[in-house]
């Protein structure tokens, strides 16, 4: 091997190790405040931070910004942890901002001592003083990983407030100190924070801190597609989706794609696949839409990946009340589970089926409206005749009891005499509802004896009203 090749290989190894070392030093953070319910938009921002750190072998920090003592509530902080656990975003460290107040106060004193901050009258009525940062009034440019270069004349910001008093630093100062102390290299956050960035850069520079790389993700538009999704909108609390039966995989998949796309045709991504595909370069600048129909569709796709046992466990809690009644039959439940699955996008769909009585006829004989059992222009006499014929065919049937074979057995008669005239009375007799599965599916689920009993009952009801 020549000396050139040896040194070239050594150089490549050095560069590779340098890149790996740099990636391992990447640190991101998510910094929610426990002053309200955790927003679905927060999941997306958290995931972008999580994915960027994990993809580059870095560190992801959950920082609880709990310095607002008047508005903080433990239940909201607990909800933050529950959301992260539910969607499977593990963090390397929890950093509580309130535990670092002394450090914030120390930095505040340094700024005052160095002439970079000063005490000034705060309230217009002169009732109290605040600490203001002495703005150097200069133009700064920072490179946003998503929005590109942004230039701001900081003169317009004036001498902005960084503390209520000597003991109470405010957001801008606290966040700068925390990011520096935690070694945060990349601040990935919502675009509403773009306006905060110049102030924070000025503080970084005044303190001699390394300025992190900024990336501001686009707004999420509300369901109306016009206004930004806000906490005042319905369906924005993350755990509401858990209660409604959305799968965490579906919600994460859905939120990650609002404002980002890997550039492929693939739509279903597991958490690990999202991490591997994610990059800041493909995050769009403009806002993304919040399409609940798309979320429901994704949830359906992820439900389809569940085994029959997993799907049964998913819906079973909704049937606890029915399970405690005499009419419940496990063999029927096993048969109708695939039918329920076909109609289910989210768990709320199953609850609707139960509430509206759409599953009752599987367990109890329905009440029959004799006017509805007759198909369109059919007659009562013809309807009785068709039901008697089908009853006879079912009674004499001795092959495998499944919908395909039953259909082959009955369908020729329906084709000859009129499908609607034959099959509508049959289906209605079995379910007692205007909308239900096809009659052959119902026959398979209900079984021979129950089906014959219901058909006979309908015939008897029709005869009562004849004449």
Describe the model.
Strand 9, helix 6 and strand 10 form a beta-alpha-beta unit. About 1% of the residues have low confidence. Helix 4 packs across helix 5, helix 15 crosses helix 17 and helix 16 packs across helix 18. Among the domains are: 65 residues, Glutamyl-trna Synthetase, Domain 2 (Glutamyl-tRNA Synthetase, domain 2, Orthogonal Bundle), CATH 1.10.1160.10; 50 residues; 85 residues, Arc Repressor Mutant, subunit A (Orthogonal Bundle). The relative contact order is 0.08. With 467 residues, the chain is mostly helical. The chain is elongated and about 100 Å long. The strands form 4 sheets. A 3-stranded parallel beta sheet has the order 1-2-3, with helices on one face. Strands 4-5-8 form a 3-stranded antiparallel beta sheet. A two-stranded antiparallel ribbon has the order 6-7.
Number of helix segments?
19
- Percentage of β-strand residues: 5-15%
User: Major β-sheet, in short?
Assistant: 3 strands, parallel
Would you count the extended β strands for me? 10
Spatial gap, N to C terminus: 108 Å
Strand arrangement within the widest β-sheet reads 1-2-3
